[in-house]
Design brief:
The protein is mainly α. It has a domain of 97 residues. It is built from 12 helices and no strands. α4 runs antiparallel to α5.
């Protein structure tokens, strides 16, 4: 009886040995190390080619997340390079890859929308991207501000007002797209005050618009060229 149990234990151990999976895990680990070295050398494109297949189609699930993170790091470097060269088409391609890898991240969506809106001037495509951002996260402040800006550009002032009101409502629990720094927050808040003042002026409330600009400068606590430009625009538009 004891011999039978021992044999069963031996067979159970042998049955669970998985040498091929160990080889796969080891190979993935080696590729991840190679990708890290390539990134350190500034060779982001080669690093991406190495880890992207592991991130999107890895049978080694325990390593897929690490491969995905490395792929995002490589994509971030490549996108920065594209933006410096004003190669917006390739930047958008890389951003789409990033979004496929990390569908719950806001940053690549916001950056994609900014490129479409500010660089390519494709308002409808940008609008859809920012709508996707606020659907993903209703507290995405940048998304609501850009949606309001686009609708102002289209002269859809009531719709822009709804988006701006939503932007002010999410302030108590903001989900940021960009990594938070004082500079980033200042720029976003300048946009919020500026868009609000501009919309009030377009709706005929010049006095309220100027009051918003004044309050914005007071709250931000620094001289804002952007808000000063909005103020000049309000004054010129009222002449």
């Amino acid at each position: 009886m004891q011999m039978k149990k021992t044999n069963q234990t031996i067979q159970s151990i042998k049955h669970n040995l998985n040498h091929s999976l160990l080889r796969q895990i080891l190979e993935v680990a080696r590729r991840i190390d190679q990708a890290k070295d390539l990134l350190n050398e500034g060779r982001a494109e080669l690093a991406l080619k190495l880890v992207l297949p592991l991130a999107v189609d890895s049978k080694v699930l325990s390593m897929a997340e690490q491969a995905s993170d490395l792929a995002v790091t490589a994509l971030d470097d490549l996108i920065d390079d594209c933006l410096k060269r004003e190669d917006f088409k390739t930047a958008l391609k890389h951003l789409d890859e990033w979004i496929r890898l990390k569908p719950l991240e806001l940053y690549p969506l916001i950056l994609k929308g900014e490129i479409l809106y500010l660089e390519i001037d494709d308002l409808e495509a940008a609008y859809q991207v920012f709508r996707q951002a606020v659907r993903l996260c209703p507290n995405c402040l940048e998304g609501w501000i850009y949606l309001a800006d686009i609708e102002c550009s289209r002269k859809h002032y009531r719709k822009a007002a709804r988006y701006l009101i939503r932007a002010w409502q999410v302030l108590s629990n903001i989900r940021w797209g960009y990594p938070v720094t004082a500079s980033v927050v200042t720029n976003i808040f300048e946009s919020l005050y500026g868009q609000t003042a501009r919309l009030l002026a377009l709706l005929g409330d010049e006095k309220g618009a100027k009051a918003v600009i004044k309050k914005g400068m007071e709250v931000i606590g620094s001289r804002s060229n952007y808000l000063n430009k909005i103020l000049q625009w309000i004054e010129e538009a009222s002449k």
